[in-house]
Design brief:
The chain is built from 12 helices and 13 strands. By secondary structure, the chain is an alpha/beta fold. Helix 10 links the parallel strand 12 and strand 13. The longest helix is centred in the last third of the chain and has 29 residues, at 357-385. The protein is globular and about 70 Å long.
Length: 386
């Protein structure tokens, strides 16, 4: 624990890290693992856990399920399966004094913001996004029968979400897009802290002539439109990622098309190899908060054909590190044709250094020190005035 001297070094601080829930390994878990490694934290507190045989593929960080530490754990675990309906309450019930009463608690995700920390603990939140179905995507499904029936619950959860916001002392956002949403929906400022990329692991081994898509076969990843864009063309498409929620028609097209190769979930080593040998990466996630795949493509010296919204739409510049498209099959085809005919004017990896692991580690440590000093300064003034 740090003492009352406002000037502190990072090593003087007891820092803890909590991640809202985990049932599979994805981008958020990658980020939290790297965040823990950067802060020399070996354990991340979370709710839920993957299969015991499914170890963390991103590092040696351990995820500790806090539900087992609560009273009536069987009931709490049942509640956790209902998602956000009970998640805010589950995090509220965690007594952080049982975990040492840290000087700084960094929470990852939306529902962890509900934690009630000791008054001497700085609570910083790493925001991957504001809850999208409460805010920017609210109108996308409200016309469906399920959407209409769910609206009263969504309105309640939106109020619940707003209620816990003042418990956060400081926000980090994973991109300028998320910083904008935090300002729009919570009227809160945020420091942009890009997720770290281990740039040294990526390399360019030439061009084996195929286009690559990385990620689950999900509707929200725009996979059906990518498949439609490549179906019947002379361009080879490799899909690498876990089974998602695409319909049977899309699955049938993938199985039938001779130029489309689905590899399933691949290891990190296989991913790096696919990136190293592809011609370009195709990315079609809708309004992505950050989207690490375009950066991975550029770090491998390959262009990315990315949808023109969210952070990828800001990051990708036509003809420089890739091409943008509108997400529809025709738009994706046009981006492929432009890349094939025009190529790139420069090195697609010229701007990736800003996402380095070293830069991430330095920024997060300096920011924590700065914010903790301000927090302690405010606390000491309040104590003095009392």
């Amino acid at each position: 624990m740090a003492d009352d001297d406002v000037s502190v070094a990072f090593g003087d601080l007891d820092v803890a890290l909590a991640h809202w829930h985990i049932d599979a390994w994805g981008g958020a878990e990658y980020l939290v693992t790297k965040l823990a490694e950067s802060l020399d934290i070996g354990t991340v507190y979370t709710t839920g856990e993957p299969s015991p045989d499914d170890t963390n593929p991103y590092g040696d960080v351990i995820f500790h399920d806090v539900i087992g530490d609560l009273s009536l754990p069987s009931l709490r675990r049942l509640q956790s399966k209902a998602g956000r309906v009970f998640e805010y309450a589950l995090w509220e019930d965690i007594d952080w004094r049982e975990y040492g009463g840290p000087d700084v608690l960094i929470t990852s995700g939306s529902t962890t913001r509900a934690v009630i920390t000791p008054d001497s603990t700085l609570h910083a939140n790493y925001c991957h996004s504001t809850p999208r179905w409460f805010y920017d995507l609210y109108h996308d499904r409200k016309g469906s029968p399920v959407g209409i029936l769910a609206r009263p619950l969504v309105r309640y959860l939106r109020m619940r979400d707003m209620t816990v916001d003042p418990r956060v002392d400081y926000y980090f956002a994973n991109s300028p897009i998320i910083a904008r949403r935090l300002r729009k929906y919570y009227n809160r400022d945020a420091e942009v802290l890009y997720p770290p990329v281990s740039l040294e692991r990526y390399h360019n081994e030439g061009n084996d002539g195929y286009y690559l898509h990385l990620g689950r076969l999900d509707e929200e990843k725009g996979v059906p439109n990518i498949v439609r864009a490549f179906d019947g063309t002379e361009h080879c498409l490799v899909l690498a990622g876990g089974e998602g929620d695409i319909d049977e028609g899309c699955h049938s097209t993938i199985e039938r098309a001779p130029n489309i190769d689905y590899r399933g979930f691949v290891s990190e080593a296989e991913k790096y190899d696919l990136l190293a040998h592809c011609q370009a990466v195709v990315f079609n996630g809708h309004n992505e908060d950050f989207g690490i795949v375009p950066i991975e493509a550029n770090a491998s010296g390959k262009p990315c054909l990315a949808r023109d919204d969210g952070f990828p739409g800001v990051y990708i510049e036509d003809g420089k590190n890739g091409y943008r498209h509108d997400g529809r099959p025709a738009g994706i085809k046009t981006a492929v044709e432009r890349f094939e005919s025009e190529g790139l004017a420069g090195d697609p990896g010229a701007e990736v250094e800003r996402f380095s692991t070293d830069g991430f580690e330095e920024q997060i440590k300096q920011s924590i020190i700065r914010q903790y000093e301000r927090f302690r300064e405010t606390t000491m003034v309040a104590d003095y005035n009392d």
